[in-house]
Amino acid sequence: MSNNSFAAASEIECDFDGVLMRPFDPCDHDLDANFRLTRFADLSERTKKMPKDVHSKVMSVEQPRGEPEAKGQKETMPEPEPQQPKIALDISARGSVFTKPTPLFGDLQLVQATDFGYPIIDDPYLMGKIACANVLGEMYAKGVVACDNMLMLLAVSTHMTEKERDTILPIMMRGFKDCAMKAGVNVTGGQSVVNRWCIVGGVATSVCKEIEIIQPNKAVPGDVLLLTKPLGTHVALNLHKWMTADGDKWKFLKHSFSEEEVGKAHSMAVKSMCRLNRITAQLMHKYGAHGAIAIAEHGLLGHAETLAACQQNDVALSICNMPVINRMSSVATQCGDSFQLMRGRCPEHSGGLLICMDREASIEFCKEMITMEGPSARSWIIGIVANGDKTVNFSKQRVIDVNI
Amino acid sequence: MSNNSFAAASEIECDFDGVLMRPFDPCDHDLDANFRLTRFADLSERTKKMPKDVHSKVMSVEQPRGEPEAKGQKETMPEPEPQQPKIALDISARGSVFTKPTPLFGDLQLVQATDFGYPIIDDPYLMGKIACANVLGEMYAKGVVACDNMLMLLAVSTHMTEKERDTILPIMMRGFKDCAMKAGVNVTGGQSVVNRWCIVGGVATSVCKEIEIIQPNKAVPGDVLLLTKPLGTHVALNLHKWMTADGDKWKFLKHSFSEEEVGKAHSMAVKSMCRLNRITAQLMHKYGAHGAIAIAEHGLLGHAETLAACQQNDVALSICNMPVINRMSSVATQCGDSFQLMRGRCPEHSGGLLICMDREASIEFCKEMITMEGPSARSWIIGIVANGDKTVNFSKQRVIDVNI
């Protein structure tokens, strides 16, 4: 594809937040027309996360200093701390992890989230925004609306030219900062290094009262499951990348999907990923949500399982609807479901919240979301909470093609 | 060098914290005898940090959305926020950045530090410890003794085998956690991804009262400059790596330095990097320190310049002594000072604090450091604070070879 098509495809992605903005064009910045931010990491379609089972395996290994038993016993030394417990550290299966809130001064709690990863879109400004919205998403899932501080984590690629580095970095930082500003929080520091791959991420911190936190574990039978953003971001991003590269994958798919459709899907994905779940978190308080989780790298089902497993009551989550960015379920199916979208395992980036809430409250919640944020803030009832054994019932999905 | 020599060289590095421990040997864990953690990043002798001037350049660039002027004006869109100030975000020249403390609830302050980088030693347990001590060092420089929470940042290399990953990760995490435990703080979460290079780092957070923070900017003429750890860690690590690899660099240097000397220097460097600056911070309060900074990637002079520039009073820092790990200044000199050690620009890892303090208080400070932590907690008076223009006078250095 020519660079013009690249611009055309991303053109419509910028008309949100009520402001029209020109899309990023490398030539505007005297960069090579073929400059693509996403090329500075080569994970390809893979997710940046380690699989969940790897995490469990790593976490369950007890590796005291000096283990396993020495072969030549001579050097064997005593354990530094013989009563060392199992590794409690949870470098978690989720995109980021909250601290168990710990009382500080009176009833204050410290809540934190961190995430970092690789560029998933080529526009550095919007990439900065997405990285920020993504980290904040973990705070909002806990009901924490007010963040006190953001740090940014950055790495420039050793393969970038100086010109590329000096151009891209400030734009990405600005995107991050603008998004944080929208969330009402300042970015006051961070760390930047050189790395083989380009990295962008952050750390969100809030010192808040217990009442500001919504515990995730209060679902009761009869609740519904709400999802606040459509699925399919990962599919849309990859499809757009294939189209831009004009390789074999696109040659196979281009008979079924038009460039316009791909551009629209990509635009919707970017818009969705940039959108903060902040008002969602506010309304979770207002309508008494019984728990929520942010949808990220482990896909809808992966995170639903985590949410189900932590419940206090003997409940199970039943998911029957899959709101997916228009036509992306078709793409996933044509790819033989290598994306695992229909199996609920497709990664999402800066995804929506999956919320447990009383059925009647959920209707009002959905209405007020749209009143406050407009039609792009549509939520979907995707399932119910029933009696059960803290698992997820995920079968007979009905796809809802989303076109907002 | 054989694997035996590798073990021998690192053997003595583990006899600190009052506990003897067996050094890491890949074979103990059924890994290949040639497994070296430091090979999973290829920065070589370079520092992970971008040069200071790159930072300044990047920070000073104003890149409003839509700039520069469009060539084909048709698509030009209005600025989202026309009054957008210059980028205030300081992804700083220092290893990590503190937030400007912001009042939260009454007189509470939020202080944070973050840093991440690549393995600099091959022992995963001690590497975890160093990464943790390094992040905490930035808190201690501010006088913040009590941290409330630690997050860990990790990436496994895409080039590691599953076996390597599953072996190394828990050990590294345990080192990090043990160090945090020693500092009296829990590691409650973090993020782990796959990356081309292995990454280890963390985030430290403290919610504290203003009185717990020591501002860095109160130096007065007549103060002395204290340094709490010897310099030369970067030289010692590289020398040890060259020896282990037995390449041309070591062939050139082996006539002047014995394997035992290299092993000792490496051991001293590791010991020093693992050591927390926590008691240092406690005593900074007791003896009324007028400001401090942690010595990290920009070397003694780089960080001294930052400390000088932020002073309230018209003072200059004069540095005349350079305590350096035994023989490492010789190594640096024989390498044509490519390390920039004698020019004050050699990076340090998890370095000491450079402290401004009243002269008489400093004597007592140094004595009490040794009383509390033993002879390895020796500090050096390396210079004075005089009237001046917030710069650093760095000439005619006298090297003090340190052998503790």
From TrEMBL, chains A, B:
CC per GO annotation: cytoplasm
Ranges where the record places region Disordered: 51-83
This protein's UniProt keywords: ATP-binding, Kinase, Nucleotide-binding, Selenium, Transferase
Single annotated GO MF: selenide, water dikinase activity
Origin: domain of life: Eukaryota
Biological-process GO terms, alphabetical: selenocysteine biosynthetic process
Higher taxonomy: Eukaryota, Metazoa, Ecdysozoa, Arthropoda, Hexapoda
Compositionally biased region (Basic and acidic residues): 64-77
Residues in PurM-like C-terminal domain copies: 221-390
Name used for this protein in its record: Inactive selenide water dikinase-like protein
Domain PurM-like N-terminal positions: 107-204
Organism: Drosophila madeirensis (Fruit fly)
